[in-house]
Write a structure and sequence with these properties.
Low-confidence stretches: none
Structural class: alpha/beta
Shape: globular
Number of strands: 18
Bound molecules: NADP nicotinamide-adenine-dinucleotide phosphate
Number of helices: 17
Strand order of the largest sheet: 3-2-1-4-18-17-16
Strand content: 15-25%
Radius of gyration: 24 Å
Helix content: 25-40%
Largest sheet: 7 strands, mixed
Mean pLDDT: 94
Length: 472
């Protein structure tokens, strides 16, 4: 039997996109030769791996090594990487639907959520997404964006991104020397004046989103004292519902976090060069400053009887010159693709994109953070992608049962060539990687040092410079 060939475009080459490509091949293999799948993975960046390259902190080398796994998927003969292709600008949704049997959107969540307090846009008030992109060498961010001349920095939020950002600010540049941090970023971190770093949660330690392994690392930085006020980790003082105490009993993660935090609260600071103070039950009400940040006004919070965070009317001001807002990511809408503005996700039923009438839109699917919101660890995207692909495969098989011969389709290269777009290939990407490894050797640093800026990346693979544009 000659297998039916089905072609699928995946938009986004981060973990969700590449796990989708892998699931497509795996689920097609399970059909014993009845179906061949070819997958094109498109990305607006000339580099693959999305958040693994531009979100995972540079000193988290074991998480970054997930790229080795993703690389093996991109190297499968049935998979192509088409980098530097902007969905909506270089190729539209309708063009893709004409070229492929199915399109899977997996563009993640790259925009910061807003705090909604006065002063949020003052110079010195920074979205964690920008700061993370900066230290990860994202080509959209100017490597000279941060000079780090603040003595005191507040990080708002107690999730894992806040922990990453606080740790990068607290470590010395020597501790990051062997990582892939771009050289200008390492220079700026070496010159950082930050001495006091605060990480601030609007609820208590039992409700914090960080995970224990990540949290523990903050207490292991040789050049920094970690300070916690024992009064702020009293499980009953701010929570009349008893929920904190219940979680401390029943939830293993909460127990782990509390063990770490209680250990910190019992420590005596030893006058190390930097101090990281973790605060709870405080919410930002204003970022203070005339023409740049000079302070942060916080209100003491507690839970009310129904478990909602409420202000107590008691205020304090922290004299900080930089505020990093790390209160979660959001997805951005894709041109022509349904988007729920409230949840900032694409409406879907098990990965099938739903139209305004609640019915699935033929040939369109969604995976990853764009599908379920910015939650979970990288591995969560694997089962999530498998679910989307199960829906896709069921639809493809149902369509094949109705029409035995799928129509021939236009190649995406034609649509791209019509706009003068020459995609960055996987081989081009390998040339970028090679240059990053050479740079690390030249600088006497670790395995690789990130190249920064669009022009440098494109020059490394011999591609013509171009306007980056677009969010997607
Ligand atoms: P997150 O886990 O959702 O944490 C967001 C934090 O911001 C929470 O503490 C939240 O508090 C707080 N927050 C939200 N709105 C606020 C407001 N208006 N004022 C004050 N605080 C506010 O988000 P994230 O840290 O961006 O992480 C995103 C995802 O990536 C998570 O799944 C995370 O685990 C993952 N990640 C994992 C790693 C790792 O495994 N090493 C590293 C980085 C990120 P409430 O709980 O009170 O809303």
């Amino acid at each position: 039997m000659t297998p039916t060939v089905r072609r699928v475009a995946v938009i986004g080459s981060g973990p969700a996109g590449i796990y989708t490509a892998e699931a497509l091949l795996k689920q097609a293999d399970a059909l014993d030769g009845a179906l061949d799948i070819e997958v094109d993975v498109l990305d607006r960046l000339p580099t693959p791996y999305g958040l693994v390259r531009y979100g995972v902190a540079p000193d988290h080398t074991s998480i970054k090594s997930i790229a080795n796994y993703l690389q093996r998927v991109l190297e499968r003969p049935a998979v192509r990487f088409l980098g530097g292709v902007r969905f909506g600008d270089d190729v539209t949704r309708d063009e893709l639907l004409a070229c492929y049997d199915a399109v899977v959107y997996a563009t993640g969540a790259m925009r910061d959520r807003r705090l909604g307090v006065p002063g949020e846009d003052l110079p010195g008030s920074v979205a964690a997404t920008d700061f993370v992109n900066w230290y990860c060498g994202h080509p959209d961010i100017d490597p000279d964006m941060f000079s780090l001349d603040a003595d005191s920095v507040a990080v708002i939020g107690v999730g894992n991104v806040a922990v990453d950002v606080a740790r990068i600010l607290t470590k010395t540049s020597a501790e990051l020397h062997h990582t892939d941090v771009p050289e200008p970023v390492l220079t700026a971190l070496a010159a950082s004046k930050a001495r006091d770093i605060y990480m601030i949660g609007r609820r208590g330690p039992a409700h914090a989103k960080f995970t224990t392994k990540e949290l523990r690392e903050l207490g292991e930085i040789p050049g920094a004292d970690v300070v916690v006020d024992p009064a702020e980790i009293d499980l009953d003082a701010f929570d009349p519902t008893g929920d904190s105490a219940r979680l401390a009993e029943s939830d293993r993660h909460v127990r782990g976090n509390l063990t770490v935090i209680r250990d910190w609260a019992a420590r005596t600071p030893s006058d190390r060069p930097r101090r990281l103070t973790v605060r709870f039950w405080l919410r930002p009400v204003e970022i203070i400053g005339a023409d740049r940040v000079t302070g942060l006004r916080l209100e003491r919070t507690r839970l009310n009887e129904s478990g909602r965070v409420v202000g107590t009317g008691e205020y304090e001001e922290l004299p900080v010159q930089m505020v990093l807002r790390s209160v979660g990511y959001q997805s951005v809408p894709l041109p022509g693709v349904p988007f729920d503005e409230r949840s900032c996700t694409v409406p879907n039923d098990q990965g099938r994109v739903l139209g305004a009438d609640g019915e699935p839109l033929p040939g369109q699917y969604v995976a990853g953070w764009l599908k379920r919101g910015p939650t979970g660890v990288i591995g969560t995207n694997k089962s999530d992608a498998a679910q989307t692909v199960r829906s896709l495969m069921a639809d493809v098989q149902a369509a094949d049962a109705q029409s035995a011969v799928p129509g021939s389709r236009r190649r995406v290269e034609e649509a791209l060539a019509g706009r003068g777009v020459q995609p960055v290939s996987y081989t081009d990407w390998l040339a970028i990687e090679k240059r990053e490894m050479e740079l690390a050797a030249e600088l006497g640093r670790g395995q690789r040092v990130k190249l920064v800026g669009w022009d440098t990346l494109l020059a490394a693979c011999g591609a013509a410079p171009r306007e980056p544009g677009g969010d997607i």
